[in-house]
Amino acid sequence: MCKIIIGWIWIPVVILLISGCSEAQQANKEPVPTPVISSEPQILASTNPAMDDPGAVKTFLSAQKIPNGDIYLQDNKVHINIVGLNSEIEQSFAQTFTAGTYELHDVKYTMQELLSAQELLHEQELYQKLNLYGSGVDTIGNKVTITIPSDDAEAAKLEIEKWIDPKMLTYDISEIGDPHVVGTIVDIDTKQAKRILILEPGNEDPSYWFTFNAKSEMFNEAGETISFKDLQVGQQVKLWNTGMVLESFPALASVRRMELAITE
To answer: Which string of DSSP letters, residue by residue, matches 172-238?
Structure first.
């Protein structure tokens, strides 16, 4: 069975981002998961002589105090997200940069606003409460994208939108799919948390500690709901994680769903 080892993001397409925030904004940034991008831009080096230097654009935005989202390279141009784009800003760019080497986009949110919204997910402990799989900043779409399990998607959206403007959000709904891990319970721990140690077929050493929380679902071979106290060492199990796995050894994961496997 193929393992899925995921840090924070999920996840789909990675784009090289060159921040357009001011130096003050940069200082306030926290590390964030890999951004989720809603389109697939072509990644280009900034050595093209027909292309203006993105670093110069960043300096220009900071000096002019122009609120902005971010900067990215696509289709042989530097793309700049501007909050409140108007003719005066367009004229300033035209007087400073070579025509045809850049494109301006009018967006609603600055990068700092998007990052601050994303940080609320941590501050309100919504990853744990809602079993969120991850989140990221969609630079091109000027949104925060949140990956959530399909089981309680609508309830999760309602809770998230109590804290973050829904206009700022997009959702990536994760269907249940195949089990992430299949193995045997070799230890049950209740001291640190409710968790089980899993040995996968063909391995000599256990590879995962799976922790259960209030959202974890557990079923026996007949599909009937069971509880943590029904688990025993030696049982064969199928496990779906919540998407957040710490790459220690054994790896640390949390349970989205667990099923006792039928043994022959």
So the answer is: EEEP--S-SEEEEEEEEE-SSSSEEEEE-TT-SS--EEEE--TT-EEE-TTS-B--GGG--TT-EEE
